[in-house]
Amino acid sequence: MSSHSTPILYLNMGGEMLYVLRQRLKAQRIDVGKTIQVLDDVTAALLNPKILSSIFEETPMIGVPQLRSTLERVALSSIMKLDKSSMDKLFDLMIMMVKYQLTAATGPREVILITLNHIDAMRDMVSDVNAQKCVTLVHQMIVDFYGCVTFDEVWSARQSCLKELELYSVRVSILLRRGLQNEDASFNVIPHKYDEKYAERRNGLATMRLKDVSPETCCGGSFGTFGDRKTLLGKNIYLPTYGITDNTNSRRDNQQFLRDCGAKAELGMLAVQLGTEETNYERPFTLNLLSNEDEENANNEVDAEGNSVKRADSKPKVNEDYRAKLDMYADLFEDEQEGLKRSMGLLELLDKVE
C-alpha cells in the first residue's frame, strides 16, 4: 500500500464535502451570514494544522472509516447540524465523486491537479483570513510533498485510493444525468481535453520526479498558486457552469458568490439596525441533504451499499518537514478535542430544544 495516498483521499473528499454543503446551503436558502460562517468554519477545521501534520506523513494510508470519523468532526465544527441520514448521504457523495475523479485521471500529474482544483475552490469559497492562510499553506505542502515523488509512486497512490474505495458503490443522480455513471453504479469515463496518456509514456516517466518534468510534456497543467490546472476533474460539478467555462470563469463564479453573500449580509445588518430582522446570527440550524424542495437538489442517490473497510492501525511517524510551518498556524484554532466537545454539546442542546 502506498505511503502517499492519505493526502489525496483526505483533501479531495474534504473538497467535495464543501461543494455539497455550498450547494445545499444555497438550495435551501440558508441565511447568507450563516452560509459564510459555515464555509469558513468547515474549511478552517478541514485544514487544521494538527490534522494536516498527521495527514502529510509517509505512513500507510488511513482507511475510509478513520477518515470519516475525522471528516464528521470537521462537518460539525460550525453552527450547522447534520442528522445521521444526511451525514450518510454526504459521505456517499464525497466517496463516489472522488472515486469517479481518480478513475478518470489519465496520469500522475492529473491526480495532483485534481487535488489542486479542490484547493483552488476552497480559496475562492472562504473569506476568513485564517482559513485563507491555511489554504495557501496546504497548497504549498501538496506541491512540495508530491513534487519530490516519482510518477509511478503517485500512480501507485492513486491505485491504493481506488482500492480503498472499491467496495463503495452508490448511484449519484448528477453523474447519471451527465452520462458519467450507469444504472449499475459503474462509471463511464468520457475522454476530456486533458490527457496525459501515461500508459503510453510510462516507460520514460515512471522513475522521474514530478518536479523534474516540464508540464508541457504531460499536457500542461500548472502547480502554481493561481495557475491553470487544465483538467476539469476536481472542479465543482454542482455549478451550472461546470464543463462549459474555463478556470478563470469558474473562479469568477465562486468570487461572485462571495460578493453576493457579502452584499446580502450587509443588507441583513442594516435590517437589524432598523429593527426588521432578528439579531441572533449564531443560532444553530439543521441542513437537510435529503430535501427535494428545490430543483437544484442534484445530489440525491439511491442503492447505497453499506460496506465495512479495514482500518490502518499503524502508528504515524512525525513529519519534521512541515512541523515548523504548522506550529505557526496552530494557535489560530481551538484544541481539536475542545472543538468536538463544543459541537457535541450543541447537538445535545438542540435535542433538548427539539
What would your notes on this structure say?
Residues 292-304 have a biased composition (Acidic residues). InterPro entries: OSCP1 (IPR019332). The chain has 354 residues and is mainly alpha-helical. The chain has a domain at 4-239. The chain has 13 helices and four strands. The radius of gyration is 20 Å and the shape is globular. 39% of the residues are buried.
Q: TL;DR of this structure?
A:
The chain has 13 helices and four strands. The chain has 354 residues and is mainly α. It has a domain of 236 residues.
Strand runs, count: 4
> What share of residues is helical?
55-70%
Assess the beta-strand content as a share of residues. under 5%
Overall 3D form: globular
On the 0 to 100 scale, the average pLDDT is: 79
**Order of strands across the main sheet:** 1-3
Judged by helices, strands and strand pairing, the structural class is mainly alpha
Note the gap between the termini: 46 Å
Roughly how many Å is the radius of gyration?
20 Å
Biggest beta-sheet profile: 2 strands, parallel
By DSSP (H or I, 4+ residues per run), the number of helices equals 13
Secondary-structure element series: HHHHEHHHHEHHHEEHH
Low-confidence spans: 276-281, 292-318, 331-354
What oligomeric assembly is this protein in? Answer: single chain
Using brief descriptors, characterize the structure shown:
354 residues, mainly alpha, two-stranded antiparallel sheet, 56% helix, disordered C terminus, Protein OSCP1-like, OSCP1
